[in-house]
Design brief:
Elements lengths: L1 H11 L6 H24 L6 H14 L2
Helix pairs in contact: 1-2, 2-3
Length: 64
């Protein structure tokens, strides 16, 4: 999944100088998706998946 997102980001921003940053963005985004979807399943979809994604991106932003 990270590879597909990385490829899409590279199409949008093709500068070779951005490749390392784009790879990190893709990896972090997929990690957030994985953790959010686990929490969503654990809570039996109590909230929309978007709620868990937003919460996890906020959490990531606080700690970066």
């Amino acid at each position: 999944m990270e590879g597909a997102l990385f490829a899409a980001l590279c199409e949008r921003w093709p500068s070779a100088s951005q490749r390392d940053a784009l790879r990190l963005v893709a990896t972090a985004a997929i990690g957030v998706l994985r953790v959010a979807s686990e929490k969503w399943r654990e809570e039996n979809a109590k909230h929309p998946l978007a709620h868990y994604l937003r919460k996890n991106f906020e959490l990531l932003a606080k700690h970066v």
